Amino acid sequence: MTGELLRTLSLFAADLPDPPTVFEGGSTVRGWANRHSDRDLYAILPHAGEPTDGLFTKIPCGVADGHFYRRALEDADANSDLQIWRVEQVESLMSAMHISEVHENRTAGVALTNYEIDFLGRLWHGRAISGHDEVARWQRYLHTSDARQVMADRNLRLADNATEDAVGQWETGDVRSATLATLRAYGHAVDAALAMCGEFSASSKWRARRVEEARPAQMDLDEYWAVETMRDYHKDPEAWVEDVLATCQTIAASIEL
User: Fold this and answer.
1) Cβ atoms of residues 166 and 115 within 8 Å
2) DSSP readout, 133-160?
């Protein structure tokens, strides 16, 4: 851990754990990074007061309590995006990763913010920078939870909403809007299948890489890419919309929650 990172963490607490719990996630860990990629760093601290550094952005959470802090760091060898989370926030986020929560509260997964989804996805595949035992403990907690089912349920709900939009728009003759809604429904359906493989993300940025690596049972890379790039759309737009929406239903039916 660099001195700059340690100095930054000390802005939140004078009595930092020794060592503090810090992990790295994202494209640099997965081997997907390019020369423009930042390192995604996460610190989990027992206590985090208001930082004295005005460069931090305070970001509200959805399921986790309160808010976390975020700022850019510039090290000698790489730029980093650092997020500071409190232990109690991570605990509340983990407590929502049980399918019983989804069954009792049908909006539990949907209430997650994009930042919370990315936190979980990056922790799942994360690499410890400091506090290796604690990082491993959080990862075991996450891996043995129902996070995959919760995330799949979330995306299936979003896919259903997009499917309803597509059908309604098509019925009114709004072909372009129906096409975009169909693509959105398919993206969520794919993300649901990926979630069951332990792949969580709030963005479609690395979706093709996730499909390639995770190899979900519902599709191979070529099948996924044909729809994502609308390869056959021009042949018969109506048939394409119908087929893709049917594929979404098939994917949904294959996922057991």
Assistant:
1) no
2) HHHHHHHHHHHTTTHHHHHHHHHHHHHH
- 70 near 81, Cβ under 8 Å? yes
- In whole angstroms, what is the distance from residue 176 CA to residue 166 CA? 10
Instruction: Find the angle CA(216)-CA(218)-CA(219) to the nearest 5 degrees.
Output: 80
* pLDDT tens sequence across 199-241: 999 999 999 999 999 999 999 999 999 999 999 999 999 999 9
User: 256: phi > 0 → left, psi -120 to 50 → alpha, else beta; which?
Assistant: beta
What is the H or E stretch that residue 30 is in? helix 27-30
The answer to whether the CB of 252 falls within 8 A of the CB of 189 is yes
pLDDT (tens digit per residue) in 102-130: 666 666 667 899 999 999 999 999 999 99
**By three-state DSSP, how is residue 174 classified?**
coil
- For residues 2-31, one letter each, b for 16 or more C-beta atoms within 10 angstroms of the residue's C-beta and e for the rest, the string is eeebeebbebbbeebbeebbbbbbbbbbee
Note whether 73 and 8 are within 8 A (CB).
yes
Task: Determine how many CB atoms are found less than 10 A away from the CB of residue 34.
Answer: 7
Nearest to 25 by CA among 94, 81, 95, 106: 81
Question: What CA–CA distance (Å, rounded) separates 23 from 223?
Answer: 34
Partners of residue 81 on adjacent β-strands: 40, 72
CA gap 185, 13 in Å, rounded: 44
